[in-house]
UniProtKB/TrEMBL annotation:
The keyword Acyltransferase applies. GO terms for molecular function: acyltransferase activity. The keyword Transferase applies. Belongs to the transferase hexapeptide repeat family. InterPro entries: Trans_hexapeptide_repeat, Trimer_LpxA-like_sf. This is Acyltransferase.
Amino acid sequence: MHPIDRDTSRVGLKVCAAGASGKTMTNPNIPKKYKNETKATIYIRRHTIVGTGSIIMPGVELREGTSIGAMSLVRKSTEEWSIYVGNPAKKIKDRSRELLKLEKEFLKEIGK
């Protein structure tokens, strides 16, 4: 078992999602013809929040200001400044853009 740093999280490079139905083999040493993998870039834009335990499927774009609730399964790209929850993730409401004002104030304060 690999230790997990619970204080931080990172988006890894070359991340892939593979089925675990038992119809394919998933070990990285197994030739591709025996696996059913989907590999695609996941885009996470500015001011996006992803809750703990959420799964973002390959090819999805989390547009600016998206908020994903914990334990959600995101299978489709999101709308900007929206809040999503559930399995599959569904939009429940618009997200406030108030933090853009705070960002502007902060950047002014630090001279950017």
